[in-house]
């Protein structure tokens, strides 16, 4: 849309290869269809369940038992996503951007082939190309994985309640899904190969795990599935999972209605003809290395989003990179995408917001003696009356002593962590120091005042 | 079989008519009432109607086009009227594909390209 604003002739080629279970979706990418949007809505559904329990302590009386209906929630979520898909199509058409619902791949210099779902092929040429094909969930590579397991691509449109679920993985995708499924009242187990939330501050990651464990999520640590078999067909059916320990020879078995794989995502870069135009990719990971202007090794081909090597996999980052790139190309702008101090939030049952360095990375980069960590537990006022945990919410900032105690890391674990973190991210971008933070008067009574 | 048009007035008649065509693609245009001279109190509806009518030949076979007058201005302005409450309409004119989140609202209905997209694409 940005390029069309500058008078360029633009086409978008987007196609979703259905999952092994047959799930597919409309225009908008992962975030809108099988990521952030449905995730946050289902997380909200789970939070509301908790709120209903708290409500009684605040004086609300309801005589009926409170139960959750999966189909009602899923229909509403999918309806909303459908309106977003439609909105994007209207916006593209209105901006005179041509949209082809077809699978695009390079066939030669400046040329792509687009194949639609009926198999009809068309060739298109262009002056420049931007690759933003994103990623798809990885499968285990063990017997029964593609036939019987589902992934995040399937869960948000699952036409039946998943029931007793085994989530394989310890990424934020795994923990967020396990979190809301448990919050909706389902029996959930998480199978973790090694650590939780690799790449995130591990102290915070462990606190999240502890909270989830205390609130009914089972964890099986240091095991990986080696086989998935079907015991009974159905929606859902019954699956038997055999798993092996990563530290010995122990084998365990378990039965679940649904097995959700969340062990990682792989870039969609291997089958789009990049070799035909000479674009380098990291053979091992599939990611595309780019310079700080999102340009690949082929000057007329650019790439943005999750497929980039060494860059953050976040929707707002991709959007920002795309817009700035187009402005640099066609509007004479010079601004590059700033990948430093990008805030992020993990929507586990106890939300975690972060911006900047984790404690481990700060120690590694600056040395333990040069950083100071200030931290605090806090008890949200709203949790006091219903007697919810009084020592679980936690916040810490990491400061660089050698640079005026500049705040280089911000971490908060508590309700509405995303909302809290956004403001602090802006402050950090302005160079917030501990002294400035101390001299800012807090809003009372809110969690953020800590 | 081509497509057919039905003209209805008010919420109850709309729902009855839509239900009678269950199973076929249904498109609906909601406009403000017209006076004795055939002019609507809604100026945007006056602009949109000819644009929509010009694109009707693009309707898929077997589909139904329901032209629905919602009521007078006072009825429409009431935030609790049935169209707002049950069909989630936010403005007139609204052109929608019944049973899907696909719709065009107000000035979007003036654009032939968008109307055509609503009628012809999935």
UniProtKB/TrEMBL annotation, chain A:
Signal peptide: none
Binding site for NAD(+): 169-176, 264
PANTHER family documented for this protein: GLUTATHIONE REDUCTASE (PTHR42737), THIOREDOXIN-DISULFIDE REDUCTASE (PTHR42737:SF8)
Organism: Tychaedon coryphoeus
UniProt GO MF annotations: flavin adenine dinucleotide binding; glutathione-disulfide reductase (NADPH) activity; NADPH peroxidase activity; thioredoxin-disulfide reductase (NADPH) activity
Keywords assigned by UniProt, alphabetized: Disulfide bond, FAD, Flavoprotein, NAD, NADP, Nucleotide-binding, Oxidoreductase, Redox-active center, Selenocysteine
Cofactor comment: Binds 1 FAD per subunit.
Binding-site list for FAD: 40, 104, 306
The name this protein goes by in its record: Thioredoxin reductase 1, cytoplasmic
Names of required cofactors: FAD
Source species, domain of life: Eukaryota
Pfam families linked: Pyr_redox_2, Pyr_redox_dim
One GO biological process term: cellular response to oxidative stress
Gene: Txnrd1
Catalytic activity field: [thioredoxin]-dithiol + NADP(+) = [thioredoxin]-disulfide + NADPH + H(+); H2O2 + NADPH + H(+) = NADP(+) + 2 H2O
Enzyme class: oxidoreductase
EC number: 1.11.1.2, 1.8.1.9
Gene Ontology cellular-component annotations: cytosol; mitochondrion
Stored InterPro entries: FAD/NAD-bd_sf (IPR036188), FAD/NAD-binding_dom (IPR023753), FAD/NAD-linked_Rdtase_dimer_sf (IPR016156), GSHR/TRXR-like (IPR046952), Pyr_nuc-diS_OxRdtase (IPR001100), Pyr_nucl-diS_OxRdtase_dimer (IPR004099), Pyr_OxRdtase_I_AS (IPR012999), Thioredoxin/glutathione_Rdtase (IPR006338)
Record-annotated Pyridine nucleotide-disulphide oxidoreductase dimerisation domain positions: 342-449
Lineage: Eukaryota, Metazoa, Chordata, Craniata, Vertebrata
Summary of the function given for this chain in its UniProt record: Reduces disulfideprotein thioredoxin (Trx) to its dithiol-containing form. Homodimeric flavoprotein involved in the regulation of cellular redox reactions, growth and differentiation. Contains a selenocysteine residue at the C-terminal active site that is essential for catalysis. Also has reductase activity on hydrogen peroxide (H2O2).
UniProt-annotated catalytic positions: 444 (proton acceptor)
Location of the FAD/NAD(P)-binding domain: 2-322
Similarity remark: Belongs to the class-I pyridine nucleotide-disulfide oxidoreductase family.
Disulfide feature: 31-36
Automatic annotation (TrEMBL), chain B:
Primary localization class, coarse: cytoplasm
Pfam families: TXD17-like_Trx (PF06110)
Domain of life: Eukaryota
SUPFAM superfamilies noted in UniProt: Thioredoxin-like
KW Protease (keyword) present: no
Subcellular location: Cytoplasm
Molecular functions per Gene Ontology: protein-disulfide reductase [NAD(P)H] activity
GO cellular component terms, semicolon-separated: cytosol
Domain Thioredoxin: 8-121
Keyword Cytoplasm: yes
Keywords, alphabetical: Cytoplasm, Disulfide bond, Redox-active center
Protein name: Thioredoxin domain-containing protein 17
Organism: Tychaedon coryphoeus
